[in-house]
Amino acid sequence: MAFNATVLQTIIDYSLSEGPILLKPFNARISVQRYFREFERGDNLNVIFMSAITDVSKSSHVIEIPVMRGLLGYRQFILHKGNKSRFNKVHTLDALRKWTVGQIEGWPDLDVYRANEFSTIGSHDMSGLFRMLVHGRYDLLPLGLVEIEAEYNKQSSKETPLIRDNRLIVYYPWPIFLAVHERETALAKIMSRALTLMAEDGTLDNLVVKFFSVELQTIKRAGDNIIHLDNPFLPAHLRPFRFVTPTTNNSRPAIVQP
């Protein structure tokens, strides 16, 4: 993702006074499970973007600054077009729970939906999820606003019976942090200082607005059509906080206590 690369490059720029940082991309196409195993080993992969509930945080240096400022917690749905008129009548969490949700096996999101009393189904890859949705194995495929359009275009043909719903949004707290392998203590300290400065001077906020202006406007237009879910898997010390996302160039996102 271009946003992630820009964040990392900006961290490097902010850290020049502390010496050069060399970060090389890890481009292997591997499963989610293997991705985290590679990080735990730390031989080929030692800096990652991760959700706050990922288990690898127990053995790594986690920089607890929400890099995307809460944006990834906003999800919209892909569904079969034959169900669209019925889905338009969904306005509450109780009504939404009557629809079965599909997600990638191994994604922590699956546990969030189950904890919020949804019926769920899993697949090992995105192509499988789309095929299962076409054949009616489940009802809704929720994806982040930052990824849903690209994934829909990648997986669907002109003849697809699937559509993206642009009306309803689901939100649950889903902060994305940077994690550095436990052996890289010095690197973690340098990156933490840089990211702290970027959060304090508004650089992170400006990057979110620059890269995700369309998604931010989608949130703004949704108004009351946002259904909130609980994320009981957040670490206890993060639960009192609310992650706020900007909707204009003049409103800065932040972590604030309610």
Provide an overview of this structure.
35% of the residues lie in helices and 20% in strands. With 258 residues, it is an alpha+beta fold. The chain folds into 2 domains: 2-69 and 174-213 and 237-256, Periplasmic binding protein-like II (D-Maltodextrin-Binding Protein, domain 2, 3-Layer(aba) Sandwich); 71-171, Periplasmic binding protein-like II (D-Maltodextrin-Binding Protein, domain 2), CATH 3.40.190. It has a 4-stranded mixed beta sheet with strand order 6-3-7-9. A 3-stranded antiparallel beta sheet has the order 1-8-2. A two-stranded parallel ribbon has the order 4-5. It is globular and about 60 Å long. Mean pLDDT is 83; it is low at 247-258.
How many structural domains?
Answer: 2
Number of helices: 10
CATH topology type of the largest domain: D-Maltodextrin-Binding Protein, domain 2
Strand order of the largest sheet: 6-3-7-9
At a glance:
The chain has helices spanning 2-14, 32-41, 84-87, 93-96, 109-115, 126-134, 148-155, 185-200, 203-211, 213-222, and strands at 47-51, 60-63, 74-80, 101-104, 120-123, 140-144, 162-171, 176-181, 226-228, 242-243, 255-256. With 258 residues, it is an alpha+beta fold. It has 2 domains: 2-69 and 174-213 and 237-256, Periplasmic binding protein-like II (D-Maltodextrin-Binding Protein, domain 2, 3-Layer(aba) Sandwich), CATH 3.40.190; 71-171, D-Maltodextrin-Binding Protein, domain 2 (3-Layer(aba) Sandwich), CATH 3.40.190.10.
Spell out the key features of this protein.
alpha+beta, D-Maltodextrin-Binding Protein, domain 2, 2 domains, 4-stranded mixed sheet, 3-stranded antiparallel sheet, 10 helices, 35% helix
